[in-house]
Amino acid sequence: xxxxxxxxxxxxxxxxxxxxxxxxxxxxxxxxxxxxxxxxxxxxxxxxxxxxxxxxxxxxxxxxxxxxxxxxxxxxxxxxxxxxxxxxxxxxxxxxxxxxxxxxxxxxxxxxxxxxxxxxxxxxxxxxxxxxxxxxxxxxxxxxxxxxxxxxxxxxxxxxxxxxxxxxxxxxxxxxxxxxxxxxxxxxxxxxxxxxxxxxxxxxxxxxxxxxxxxxxxxxxxxxxxxxxxxxxxxxxxxxxxxxxxxxxxxxxxxxx
Length: 257
Prior knowledge:
66% helix; globular; mainly alpha; single chain; Four Helix Bundle (Hemerythrin (Met), subunit A); Arc Repressor Mutant, subunit A; two-stranded antiparallel ribbon
């Protein structure tokens, strides 16, 4: 994935922090008859979560259409929608491409007050689902025979969270860490499920104030998760990820209501 600087130092840091292997793990063929809408949803979700951070370029049209299993005409319509929404911009000719322009959103407590009861109920359901799927993903990753490149990917994903500057960058780096754990599980279904739950979690965490104590605690738990996975301790990885999910859920339930 090519990286194009959009001007600021923050943009360059965010673009350089991505894992070039992660998009291939997370992108999946579109299902059903609503290919255009599904393309928009999937690509917009990956942009919000930082899988494609600001300043990076999306894959070439033919490659992306093949990965999503859609026609190039459908993909062009989806790209037009993303451009209209301000998520990307496209340049033509030699050296051109579609560049992510959306700035990562800084968490704000104001957003929580605008959510309906139905949305909040869906959020609570997502937390319950997360408690099932993400600990399982961590356990499978620990039990997998990871090669050196995969182990390095996990360590780098963890380092990117710790190195993130500012709430917006940290939120995206956190999502990439959890998606990397899911990818190392080796299960495409788990990757799809974790992507969905991380998308909802992103909305929730963007609706509460940033708490330094919580970030420090979360980073400590991430380190324990990485240690358990790299040591091949599936039960321990499951336990620590479950504790991490429980603590995040408790914080969100307390602040969102």
